[in-house]
Design brief:
Length: 249
Amino acid sequence: MRYQSISDMDEELLKREYDLDEDNGCTCNFLRHNCRDQCLNKFPWRRLLKSILTLSILMMLFFGMALIILLTPNQPTVEFKSMEVSNFTISFSLPSPYSNWNMSATWKTKFLVRNPNRRLQISYSEIVTAVYYKKERLWSAEVESFCLEKESEKTVVSTVEMRAPTAIEEKAAFEMEVDRFKAGAVEFNVEIGGKVWFKPGSKWMWGKQSVMAKCENVQARVLVEKDGSISLVEDGSRNCRVIFSLYKS
């Protein structure tokens, strides 16, 4: 279609109307300003529906974040309480395929485990304690599972009796004997670790988590009993370094 002038074209455009909603009778001119807003004003339920949906989404996000914050656990704390080693003996045996040095003793270690969470319980399982001399593991033992209520604590005792001499590395045996005679004390590294999960709700959110408490540089004093046996005693409390898999970088 050819137009004689610009005014003819404008007049033709003004005649065009676009029905935005035929069922509800909302008809707007092509060049009319705020056409869509005018139609929406005729049907306020649309804006109300949008507002309700937007508010619902925001509330879901808010409560979801609040739930995560409430159920995010604080890591348990572990305090080393004491270690008693009785009938401590290091002996040398005839050459064998493994080691010429053996050790026998009865070990008793105590830990104080705390749950700092105000809203969550902690369940412990697969608990293992171990004692090292430097990098040499001297022994390890399993501990019975237990549960801590909110903001509670429990003393965990691990006892290992080495009735039969246990082979150890020659270097570790020699250095322990040197420490015992020269320094009057032997320094150990003590560990306790296992699996934990939190209740209520955090088991399905976080699953089982690994936790390991390292109590380093535990100095056990050498005591000579009346019967001539050697004992090592350390009763100084100290906080242990806790490695929690949930916060492990």
